Amino acid sequence: MTNFNSAAGGRGYLAIPGPSVIPDAVLRAMHRAAPNIYEGELPDMMPELREGLKSIVGTKHNATIYIANGHGAWEAALANVLTEGDEVLGIFNGIFGVGWGEVATRLGAQVQPLNCGPSTPVTSEALEAALRADTEGKIKAVICTHVDTSTSVRNDIELIRKTMDVVGHDALLMVDCIATLGTETFRMDDWGVDVVVGASQKGLMVSPGLGFVFFNEKAAEVRARMKRVSLYWDWIPRAAPQMFYQCFAGTAPIHHLYGLQAALQMIHGEGLDAVHARHAKLASAIWAACDVWGQKGPLAMNVAERAHRSHAVTTLHIGKEYGVALRRWTEQEAGVTLGIGLGMSTPDDPAGQGFFRIGHMGHINGHMLMGVLGSMEAGFAALNVPRGTGALEAAAAILAG
């Protein structure tokens, strides 16, 4: 039955943490006929794409592109450096870190979990203890998320590398930047990261389908000692192709590449520092609104410390009484889709229905953000959710500052 009181007509808005909003310029770039896939503009754009990606992740080393989502990029990275029986230390702050560990397990690795909880990053003390316990040097890789998209916890990657150096551990440092490429500062080379994994559908503003793996010479040396790597995941021909098809182990993801080219031009046209500053400001506006709402109600941010929060996604808890109802109201009545809680639970809410997430990454500005917050305010009012007053004014003050 039609709800004639609904205000959800018009274009819907995905306020989820990926896939993010695709800019019109990217959509236009993808809306074209396929070109010659053997020579000409398509192969010629590859150096531009690689250099654009490398500048975003902060590396002068190798950049490879896979036709895959983030899970595929996880496997691509691990398949090039792990053999069956290798030990891996997994720093886990949510289900995506755990998921990467599960991929390592399926490849035959022995994963040692370092569980940090769903609301805090890894500490140097906990990491140092885990590394010092490895007296025989069996750990071949440390894997972690820069930001776990399920919890919005941000790990201090520079601190992780410094801790590894203090211990003198020679494991590879491998980081998932799927949520943060194009949204937050990342310095692969300066921070001593050996392998970085990314994907297209978040801060890079392209539809899902491209996975990225960046690796330095230390990781390349590990790859060179591998007895075998499957033809599709092998990063050697992708990083240094003799023919264009080797970039993708077959036919290229043509339209995704045109979209990526347009997205990178947008990011570098705005300026990477400006992009990062925009994301930081928009995140602060969301936090300001949530702080006010939470003063007289159940809403609470999952990550208490500002320094540990992502600038790309915010995970919130409102209680199972309101969580699902709020998401359904904003989507059905206001056209705004909030992200579900993933892997989050409390003793009284084992299914995690009281959690939700706001994605604020990529192609987003002040009016889009205020639209999300305004829709949430309307949902709170419609559902009689207790809350503090003045949240929208608090967000607006951040944007005006």
Strand order of the largest sheet: 2-10-9-8-5-3-4
What is the CATH architecture descriptor of the largest domain?
3-Layer(aba) Sandwich
Rounded to the nearest angstrom, the radius of gyration is 22 Å
Note the beta-strand portion. Answer: 15-25%
- Please give the number of β-strands: 14
Query: Spans of 5+ residues with little confidence (pLDDT < 50)?
Result: none
User: How many distinct folded domains?
Assistant: 2
CATH top-level class of the largest domain: Alpha Beta
Helix content: 25-40%
Shape: globular
How many helical stretches? 14
Main pleated sheet: 7 strands, mixed
What's the rounded overall pLDDT mean?
A: 96
**Structural class computed from helices and strand pairing:** alpha/beta
CATH T-level topology of the largest domain: Aspartate Aminotransferase, domain 2
List keywords for this structure.
401 residues; alpha/beta; Aspartate Aminotransferase, domain 2; Aspartate Aminotransferase, domain 1; 14 helices; globular
